[in-house]
Amino acid sequence: MKLSSCNSPDWRLAPLLLISLLTACADSGDARAPGQSGDQGPLRVLVTSISEIPQRTRVEAVGTSRAQQSVTLYPEASGEVVAVNFAPGERVEKGKVLLELESRDEALDVELAKLRVADAKRLYERYQRSVESGATLPIDLDAAEAALDEARIELRRAEVALDERSVEAPFAGYVGISDVEVGDRIQTSTAITTLDNREALFVDFQVPEMLVGDLKLSDQVAVATWNNRRAAAFGEVVELGSRVDPATRTFTARALVENSNDRLRPGQSFRVALDVTGESYPVLPEVAVQWGADGAYAWTVEDNRGQRVPVEIIQRQQGQILVDGSLQEGDLIVVEGIQRMRPGIEVEPELATPAGDVGAHVERKSSTGPS
């Protein structure tokens, strides 16, 4: 049987076919896709510049308030009440007479003391004229002067006793409920009423001991009532406790909260929230952090060469991670092309969005009260 030439391979053409195949492979290698490396040139990667932001800890606690100025008023003397000059809940000004006691005897003592002062003053002036003419000895003038001084002291003492027969507001504020009425006979131990200046409130709350040194004076706080999660008022930390309670492992912080609209009350409890700023750390996109057998790491670019840098995770939230490691602000970190990275590999970096531009507020929750 005679076979057709089309079915019979001509082995003399094999070298030419091999050369054509190699040429085609070489031509296809010139059009490499992004991310390819090796003998075909540097690896193309996307990088971002590292920035640093402070670690932020969200503290939520239960706070108890008291007025910026708050007193319970007591009389300085015992006696019968003759006038009550306030109503519960009324706002009074500083110096307003809130309560009066029977004071007839004290008023008479003041009048008598004034007469004695006037008499001692006339005697002293008479002796003074007599000394100038030589009719009175200087020693008599000195005795008259001492008597005048003594009379003046007795007058001031009588005036103080008269003042003690009334109770005045030591500062402007709101008076509370009182059980004292006209005709009552009260003692110095009888509470008349309370007086609160609530234009601002002190709010005390407990902070975990881990934040000692991080929480600072003037840090901002927000307080909310329990029936409303929205902040009712804002303030700042004004005092910090000097010791940690060994039972609760917390310390006390005190915030001064503005209350000019008079919506809050002394003694009220609040939901307190604040962000505590700590040490600054490099912040990376979450995609830039890889995991290996020895822990987390990231790829940096230095002199167009890839470097593997071990890192420790500090915080993570919303696509951002605060890390601790041999990273500096401004270093270039690889965010795309990571899977082909090798130590020392030559790369062609292209700058992407800086790591700190998105979600720079990273926080960790630490709660010391109901959420």
Short description:
Helix content is 20%, strand content 41%. By secondary structure, it is of the alpha+beta class. A six-stranded antiparallel beta barrel has the order 2-9-12-11-10-13.
Can you describe this structure?
The protein is an alpha+beta fold and 371 residues long. It has 3 helices and 20 strands. Helix 2 packs antiparallel against helix 3 (138-163). It folds into 4 domains: 35-55 and 280-367, conserved putative lor/sdh protein from methanococcus maripaludis s2 fold; 58-69 and 196-277, Efflux pump adaptor protein, beta barrel domain (Elongation Factor Tu (Ef-tu), domain 3, Beta Barrel), CATH 2.40.30; 76-101 and 166-191, OB fold (Dihydrolipoamide Acetyltransferase, E2P) (Beta Barrel); 103-164, Helix Hairpins. The protein has a 6-stranded antiparallel β-barrel. It has a 4-stranded antiparallel beta sheet with strand order 6-5-3-8, with no helix packed on it.
List the helices and strands and how they pair.
Elements: H1 14-30, E1 43-49, E2 51-73, E3 79-84, E4 91-92, E5 97-101, H2 104-133, H3 138-163, E6 166-168, E7 173-175, E8 185-186, E9 193-208, E10 220-224, E11 233-240, E12 250-258, E13 269-285, E14 290-292, E15 295-302, E16 305-317, E17 320-325, E18 332-336, E19 347-351, E20 363-367
Parallel strand pairs: 1-19, 2-20
Antiparallel strand pairs: 1-18, 2-9, 2-13, 3-5, 3-8, 4-7, 5-6, 7-9, 9-12, 10-11, 10-13, 11-12, 13-17, 14-15, 15-16, 15-18, 16-17
Helix pairs in contact: 2-3
